[in-house]
Specification:
- The complex is a heterodimer of chains A (185) and B (242).
- Chain A has 9 helices and no strands.
- Chain A is mainly α.
- Chain B is of the alpha+beta class and 242 residues long.
- Helix content of chain B is 27%, strand content 32%.
- Chain B is built from 6 helices and 13 strands.
- The longest helix of chain B is centred in the middle third of the chain and has 15 residues.
- Classes of the chains: A mainly alpha (185), B alpha+beta (242).
- At the A-B interface, helix 4, helix 5, helix 6 and helix 7 of A face helix 1 and helix 2 of B.
């Protein structure tokens, strides 16, 4: 079913909307939650919470891109639950991905000089636009979806080692780009 | 830059990047089904000597395999001349191949509509010409780079069917011969077959048969694997049936 029709069902308050949403996007939602959360029960609850939150927010919201809207809800709910339940373990793929990026973006600048996240978002987007579509997908699947290298390799049709090398280059490229823009020392 | 800021920054990226990553389908290079080192090497050697390579379009043959009488254009009884190819080799090409099987119903329906618009053929009718027992396993479009848009423009559609070890692949295009990333070598001039008055170039490599023809402004390429020559001929007759 097309996204616009699913949204119409939400607006009509028809429960079929949730069924249609789950048929179309549950695999993606489950993947995001599984990448962040530590156990299956949390994942299942997060998926259900995603549907509930979507039901509660559409209407009044009418998302332009339903897939992005649902993914964001899942990710935010997963992070909240992760911090509450298992932050001490710091062993999820989400943390591993963040560690990589943190290492790449470490800087000697003082906190006062540090970038605000909104400015960094702008720079990230500008950098992503300089990349090929495949490299954009690799970056976003790794650092937004927190996919493993193996999962990314399947998505983009490359070998796992090739994906790792590409990720390394993308991170180095980001570092170089931010330095050139005066955002990193 | 602390971890929280990085996390917030990444989470805040434009949703178009998220959609692209969520829906991404890799571009694939079309690959042929019978790549053998010997065949490919032989093909390249012959090709280098003759300087005759052309992607996906055999120019010459190396002999007539079947001898089923003189071919006459327009004769009621089909005449089949099977040209023999020695082998094929792959070539790299920039193309976007999208498989619609396994995608959402809406996407599949849209692709069928585009197929019908492009070829003026009814999708279901095309399927009905494939013998019973075969399952459609791939429905792909092949796009070629479009310099104006920077993207890819669909050139042809391919339907792949399987029945156990047997395989039928039908490529159609209204814009020219379907594109393949293979080179087929042969030495002599190809001899055409005639089916219901239509010229068909038939050739064989091992147990693979190929038929190229044009019908009502649409270019067809029919390929089979694991089928007998008789089964291939029957299939060809069915495709060209009036």
């Amino acid at each position: 079913m097309e996204d616009s029709k699913i949204i119409d069902l939400f607006f009509a308050r028809e429960e079929r909307a949730i069924e249609a949403l789950s048929i179309k996007y549950e695999r993606l939602v489950r993947q995001i939650a599984s990448n962040i959360l530590c156990n299956k029960q949390d994942v299942e609850e997060c998926i259900n919470d995603t549907y509930l939150a979507t039901w509660d927010t559409i209407p009044p919201n009418r998302p332009g891109q339903l897939v992005a809207y649902v993914c964001r809800i899942t990710k935010n709910l997963s992070i909240t639950r992760y911090r509450h339940n298992c932050a001490k373990k710091r062993n999820s793929m989400y943390d591993v991905a963040l560690d990589e990026l943190e290492e790449c973006l470490s800087t000697s600048k003082t906190p006062e000089q540090a970038l605000e996240h909104k400015e960094l978002t702008k720079q990230l987007e500008a950098y992503l636009r300089t990349l090929s579509e495949q490299d954009q997908v690799i970056f976003v699947r790794r650092y937004w979806f927190a996919d493993s290298n193996g999962e990314i390799a399947k998505v983009v049709g490359l070998s796992e080692s090739n994906t790792s090398v590409k990720l390394h280059r993308i991170r180095k490229g980001l570092q170089k780009y931010l330095k050139k823009e005066g955002m990193l020392e | 830059m602390n971890r929280d800021e990085i996390e917030k920054a990444v989470n805040g990226i434009d949703e178009n990047f998220i959609v692209k990553a969520a829906m991404y389908q890799p571009r694939k290079q079309r690959r042929w089904q019978i790549p053998t080192i010997v065949a490919a090497c032989l093909c390249l050697c012959i090709g280098a000597g003759m300087g005759m390579h052309r992607i996906g379009v055999p120019k010459k043959n190396i002999g007539v395999v079947s001898d089923r009488g003189e071919q006459k254009k327009g004769t009621e009884k089909p005449t089949f001349i099977v040209n023999k190819g020695d082998g094929i080799a792959k070539v790299d090409m920039d193309a976007e191949v999208i498989n619609y099987i396994g995608r959402s119903k809406e996407e599949l329906a849209r692709a069928k509509e585009e197929f019908q618009t492009s070829t003026a053929l009814d999708f279901e009718q095309v399927l009905s010409k494939v013998p019973m027992g075969y399952q459609l396993i791939e429905f792909t479009s092949l796009g070629l780079p479009n310099k104006k848009t920077g993207g890819y423009t669909v050139h042809d559609y391919t339907l792949s069917f399987e029945n156990g070890e047997k395989r039928i692949v039908l490529s159609l295009s209204s814009q020219g011969k379907p594109i393949e990333d293979v080179i087929i070598a042969s030495e002599e001039e190809q001899k055409p077959s005639y089916v219901h008055g239509h010229e068909v170039i038939v050739y064989a490599i091992g147990d693979h048969y190929y038929g190229e023809f044009q019908l009502n402004g649409v270019y067809y390429k029919l390929q089979t694997e694991g089928l007998s020559l008789e089964a291939f001929q029957e299939l060809l007759l069915g495709q060209i049936a009036q």
